[in-house]
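Q: Structure tokens for this one, please.
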Amino acid sequence: MTTPALPDDSDPIARVQRELLTVGRRGTARVRREDEALSVVDRSLLTYIQDNPGCRAVDIATHFQLNRSTVSRQLGALLDHGYVIADEEPAGGPRGIALRLTDAGSAAFHQSTRTVLDSVARRLEGWSQDDLEAFARMLERYNSAPDE
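A: Here is the predicted structure, written as tokens:
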């Protein structure tokens, strides 16, 4: 059985995928380099909870298309650090309970967000407002497309 050939550099879909991979890797490297308290995973969870107070682990798992046990494990670390609080925690753990940021979680989230926004702003220096708006719209469009 032969392996199908991968698209070459002229394929725009392959180029988009490569650039998205680079964005993710650079974000991870930046967190390590700047000794951030929050990992990329932590930031993604805190961002979702910040934007959706009262959400549950199952909501997060659905949004990021992750296994609920993975999300529960990741949330466990945030609960242990005191960044997230579970309202009316049942015996089953954080999976089905309403989540919200604590004051410490909100402070860490805001500090980390400021650091990331500053880094993104430096990379986008010199872009016109029209280019920024177009780029934001394209990313939103990409992220809102349904997965199969």
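A few notes: The two ends are 26 Å apart (CA to CA). The beta strands are 84-87, 98-101.
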